[in-house]
Amino acid sequence: MPMWYQRIAWETLRASLVPLLMSRHGFDARAARPLPGGPLVILSNHANTLDPFAIGALSNRPVRFMANLEGVAPLAAAFAGILGAYGRRKGAPDLAALRRTLSLAAAGESIGLFPEGDRSWDGASQALRPGLGRLLKRLGHSIVLVRQKGNYLARPRWAKTWRKGPWNLSWTMFDREEVAAMSEGLLDALVDRALAADDIKEAMAEGRSFEGEGLALGVGRLLWHCPVCGKDDDGEGRGTSLTGRDDRIACSRCGSRWRIDANLRVHPLNVPRGLMASPIADLKDWSDWQLASLPGLIRGEGRGAGGIHARGVVLSRHRGRALERLGRGVLHLDAAEPRFEDGRSRQVFSASEVRGFVDNFNAFSEFGHRGERWRLEFGGGNAAKWCYALSRAGGAS
């Protein structure tokens, strides 16, 4: 059962912090039904760092959320621990976290899981982590599927500012007898369908409006490819091509400019839409176009030498609990293999053996390769491109 301090922290959160956040950021969790009592496994789509707190507003008892605590500020990590959160290593198998989950469930506690494993970059659902149905069968609890809308638009993963607008939560429950009667595959399909989201497109279709300031700040963390000149960030050693300031996006290579609103719709300012390589109405369209163009960029189609590059990258390798810094240099990915060069050394990685490439709060990225764990620090540069490129070049995590 939850410790006494976890119960006190949970009730304090419900009585003070959660209503404050709801009021300030326009959350609408109070419109949802409260969660039922008894031990539960709560699963939700994931797009915001405050997702556990929004879900917690619906529960009158502590929920033990499995969370990534790497890269989290020490004070925030300590607060999460007081609330009962427990850590999971991001992007890599973590048997200790699995054993902890099973132990907590056996003790009758409620577990909170985000089966996508990481926050969405563009507001759309990601693939569920493998083995979810098997885990739900082993836990043996009733399951609650929480569907969130507006959590991404409240503060996109790449953004530096909050926005105000409706953050709605609804849920569906299946009791333990129903879960026991389902196959693992059916549970996977059920969760996948119930939690599927596309926050940008759904908000526009449903007429949900957001507002805010500094709407383009940080957008260079998501955008790397200009749809007018075709340049990608750092591809020629000239720095990031796409930057955001106030509510403006600009390409430093060709001078194209756009305005975005709080619903992340894109409005060209000096670019006839006919000059854009793809019809782009919002940042989801832009993100989809980038992702579709990525294989061609890696192969060098339509532009001389192939590959994508990032300069000024710091490469380190985990040595037990220590971190061995190998140098600052250039990260390449072309039709051959990903490689790192710093003028003194060269490290080549086999793309098919890259595992679990993840980004930690825009601070650093990590991946596994041949039994070792590696860290990349982009120094504020674009990490999303590499999350997509190396995750798809490598095998399943």
- Secondary-structure element pattern, one letter each: HEHEHEHEHEHEEHHHEEEEEHEEEEEEEH
Q: Kindly state the percentage of residues in helix.
A: 25-40%
Total number of helical segments?
11
Average pLDDT works out at 84
Radius of gyration: 22 Å
Low-confidence parts? none
C-alpha geometry: globular
* Beta-strand fraction estimate: 25-35%
What class would the helix/strand composition place it in? alpha+beta
Distance between the termini: 32 Å
Number of domains: 3
Largest sheet: 7 strands, antiparallel
Strand order of the largest sheet: 16-15-14-13-19-18-17
Q: What is the tally of beta strands?
A: 19
Explain what you see:
- The chain has 397 residues and is an alpha+beta fold.
- It has three domains: 4-211, no CATH class; 213-299, no CATH class; 308-393, Pleckstrin-homology domain (PH domain)/Phosphotyrosine-binding domain (PTB) (PH-domain like).
- The chain is 29% helix and 25% strand.
- The protein has helices at residues 4-25, 51-56, 74-83, 95-106, 132-139, 151-154, 176-181, 184-195, 199-206, 283-299, 384-393, and strands at residues 40-44, 63-67, 86-87, 110-113, 142-149, 163-164, 168-174, 211-212, 242-245, 248-251, 257-260, 266-268, 308-319, 322-333, 338-341, 346-348, 354-360, 364-369, 372-377.
- A seven-stranded antiparallel beta sheet has the order 16-15-14-13-19-18-17, with helices on one face.
- α5 packs across α8 (184-195).
- The protein is globular, with a radius of gyration of 22 Å.
